[in-house]
Specification:
There is one protein chain. The chain has 7 helices and 10 strands. With about 230 residues, it is an alpha/beta fold. The protein has a domain at about 5-85 and about 155-230: P-loop containing nucleotide triphosphate hydrolases (Rossmann fold). It has a 6-stranded mixed beta sheet with strand order 6-7-8-3-9-10, with helices on both faces. Helix 6 packs parallel to helix 7. The longest helix is centred in the C-terminal third of the chain and has 18 residues, at about 170-185. The relative contact order is 0.21.
């Protein structure tokens, strides 16, 4: 059995019907590619529990499990997932180390210890020496790396990326995509990223699936993925 199993994830609106299934091995990255309005971000929100699916009302078997544990009836906070958004959404009044340590503090770790752990963890993101800085002093790429560190430090069972580089320029997008791919291999997290950028998907993913109007129209390896499929 794969680490992530999703079967029959469905949601219907007047303009689109989502019907999504996938399986992901541990420490692998799945890319969901498609044009704007194809339902990519909606799929992530359904997985995270931020939107309730119609799947329970369907005759199709519905499976949503991570690490062999069903999460479909859990609240978003109980699912153990991490999300990285287009906007880094850092707390502006907190230092970088306190931003990164936020999840640790929520588990009961003390301020001094959580700062030490966060400062050490920042080394994985080429952010040595950034611990005492504030978000306003960071570049867009630095802020996104801090956001990723904040997500990963609590070791989420699955990381969901919602077009995390869409607000950045092309060279920086390419650099961060490569950096995150390297980190994914180093730390070994399992992830799903949605993107409309073909090169980004190829650089970051082990498998890619294409959505058109909520339905999967192609699934395969990055080597076989091309513009024609979107």
């Amino acid at each position: 059995m794969s680490y992530v199993e999703i079967i029959g994830l469905q949601k219907t609106w007047p303009e689109i019907k989502i019907d999504f299934s996938c399986s992901i091995e541990r420490a692998k990255m799945l890319g969901i590619a498609g044009h704007s309005g194809s339902g990519k971000s909606t799929v992530l929100r359904l997985i995270a529990g931020l939107i309730q699916p119609d799947s329970e009302k369907s005759d199709t078997p519905f499976v949503l499990s991570v690490g062999g544990k069903s999460i479909k009836h859990m609240s978003p906070a109980k699912r153990g997932l991490g999300m990285v958004f287009q906007n880094a959404a850092l707390f502006p009044h907190m230092r970088v180390d306190d931003n990164v340590a936020y999840g640790l503090r929520c588990t009961g770790m003390g301020k001094k210890q959580s700062r030490r752990v966060a400062a050490e963890f920042l080394k994985n993101f080429a952010l040595e020496g950034f611990a005492e800085r504030y978000p306003e002093s960071l570049s867009g790429g630095e802020a996104q790396r801090v956001s990723l560190a904040r997500t990963l430090i609590v070791r989420p069972s699955l990381v969901l990326f919602d077009e995390p580089f869409s607000s950045l320029d092309a060279p920086l997008r390419k650099k961060l995509a490569s950096d995150i791919r390297d980190l994914q291999k180093k730390i070994g997290f399992t992830g799903i990223i949605v993107t409309h950028d073909i090169n980004e998907a190829k650089a970051m993913c082990d498998h890619i699936t294409v959505l058109k109007k909520g339905r999967q129209t192609w699934t395969g390896s990055p080597e076989d993925f091309s513009e024609a499929f979107i």
